[in-house]
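Input:
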Amino acid sequence: MKNSIKLLREEKRITQKQLASQVNVSRQAINAIENEKFEPSIWLAYDLAKYFGLSIEDLFHFEESDRK
Amino acid sequence: MTFITNKVTNAVFIALLSLVYGGLFLLISGHMEFLSTLPPKASVNYGFWNTWLTFIYDGGLTIIGYTILGITVAIGGLSFFGSYKKLDEYQSSLLLKVIMVSGLITLVSFPLLVINVLSEPLFAIPFTLFFVVVIWLFFQITYLLFLIKLR
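Output:
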């Protein structure tokens, strides 16, 4: 799923590892989410959105074509 | 899915099964009573199976037994001393894929084993051992690669 995590993370000048430790997941998880290889659970999406001070819908770009 | 998220629990589970498999192979390799249950060498027309039978006769199960135990030690080391003791949801999803592929290999192996046993009943023990080795070593190696990828 498309998202703004990489953009926002780079704006904050933090590494994937630092973001990962903020939301209690591995660096690989953040990398996979940024590269749209993994869709996070609703709770991880919530934690990420909360960290960036956004809503889930603002952080993750919901498109009908992505619906499974 | 929470039952697979603890690397240490997974390692203990794998170690217990590996001790059974590895120990069994080390125990029966070269054992006279076990060898007496095998068909004579070169008793089928398939080169591969005769090679496998010769391998068993020559004590090859010892190598497999030690290999299984060696991989178990590596899995234990990576699980106990790795950076994360608990897998997150992304890592769990990767592990689930490893388990699914191994499960598929197991499911495919059973009908192949049955076909082979029915076509060459004398070879039932070498066939069974071969599929056990393939299934367990495949799972161990893929799990080890998974742990290495996490580092």
